[in-house]
Specification:
Blueprint: E1 7-8, E2 19-22, H1 26-31, H2 37-45, H3 47-55, H4 62-75, H5 77-83, E3 85-86, H6 96-109, E4 114-115, H7 117-131, H8 134-140, E5 144-153, E6 156-166, E7 171-178, H9 183-192, H10 195-207, E8 215-222, E9 229-233, H11 236-259, H12 276-279
Parallel strand pairs: 1-2, 3-4, 7-8
Antiparallel strand pairs: 2-5, 5-6, 6-7, 8-9
Helix pairs in contact: 2-3, 2-11, 4-5, 4-7, 10-11
Length: about 280
Amino acid sequence: METTAIICPHESFDFGGAGIYALVDPLDYHRLEACSAWRLMRLGRSPAHLRTSLEEPFEMSDKQVYREAMRMATFAPDRFDQRYHTLPEGINLRTNAGKAQRDALYAEVGQENVLKADDYEKCLRVAEAVRNHPVIARLLADAHPLLTVCFHYEGVYCKSRLDAWNPDAEIIFDLRITGDASKGEFQKQIWNFNYHRTAAFQQLSLTMEGFVTQRVFFIAAESFPPYGVRVYEIEGTAIRAGHRQNQDLIEEYANCLETGHWPLYTDRVDKIDLPSWAYRQL
């Protein structure tokens, strides 16, 4: 049975409600109290580490600002042009006059909307390279950009972000900025940074909204000349593995919420050895 995607405008974003929302402000998303792929990864270290992170006032780091700008430049370029600014060329931040000029721009448009000149240029170059990729260009033509999906799963309120989603092609797009987009190197990044778990969580978010057959395409984009782009569809086996990992953590997250207990590491003494791959190098 076909399900028609209902994309709600960002103005109707409901803190605590379920649905698919377009172009939600990044600050609103990050401040929404809900389980997310990032929270589950932090929980995987220990619940106490997650709790400590959540108790700190949220402020976007320079890296987060850069990533948000890159996403918007790629998937919503018109909004990028409206939102993001760069410091005037030649400004000297070692002088009081330069600092005053910077602070005036921060006050006018918000510090989170001001990029370094190099980062601004990289956003434009990466976005251009991605949009000129023949496969991506065709599939993005009918895609919804920068979506936030809010849903309930096994009693836990959750949130997920999709860089873009083409419901007709049943594809979720996930932009990943990298120094090396070659297949062997990007495979390592999928494992090292748990991209498969993020993909599983994104897929779950749409499943809970009635869309059960979504594939996930990683757009691996290099942020240095010549700005290479590779597109990878992650295998279903990897997504299923990510879902199994997420499932255990969601259950642990729910238990922490219910009991108010966010434990640190275990008190037992564990044996430890070299990783298996190290023995192959001895």
